[in-house]
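Input record (one chain):
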Amino acid sequence: MAASTAPTSQTHPAALPPSVFTLPQTAQLEALYTIIRDKTTSRGDFLFYSDRIIRLLVEESLNHLPVIPKIVETPTGATYEGVGFEGKICGVSILRAGEAMEAGLREVCRSVRIGKILIQRDEETALPKLFYSKLPEDIASRYVLLLDPMLATGGSAMKAVEVLQEQGVPEERIIFINLIAAPEGLKRFCGRFPSLRVITGWIDKCLNEKSYIIPGLGDFGERRCVCCACWYSSSPTADLDIVNEESSRVTSIIALADDCHVAFKSLIRHALRQLAAFFLAEHLAKQLSL
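The corresponding structure, as predicted from the sequence alone:
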């Protein structure tokens, strides 16, 4: 008996900008999004299934990079006329949620350079403000995959693009990757940067009066961050993944601390390592039923 095709909840605005590309709308993709949208989904499952979507997005983004002819010799002694990527790439994550997409990028692109941008809302002006950036020195000569899982109003993403342009990155060399986008944010973002391509997994219905994406999936960063979770997954393997991810997160924050004033480095490092030790101790105590 043929499998039935579930109706998709994907939204396709009539005036969708031509620079926006979505993943192929399959039943499998719909199922993955259903899992991560469910508020009862465990943190371990949220990590696993959102990472699957992130890898799909990264793979799709590579399809939009230019290639050049390349001839290689196979083990049989024959030649094969194929293609190779033109130029180098790098990833840039918009902290903090964008950092969760770095692992998916590294799994697809080995040894890829990754930069970071931290943008927060200015309390006085209510506008996005750059608080921190650490980018490869040669970023102006690379194709940039900009990483942020959610596109709501587009304010942070537009500020991040401005930061990249200030470093000499042409607009057409930037590809913005996200899991869920609101139509309002897409139109605003693409209207500002028409030559920049956007790769999104799903376009939701709208923004509500608080500028939250509807139906959305909640706060992506909080659902992944162990600091905001009061429970662990029942799977020991998933728990170890959680500890490994938090250890990586602490290492990343320590790297940010390297740019702080020398007088504060030691204090920051000590506090962060104590925090990492607490996460590990809590995990071990749970496994040993202490």
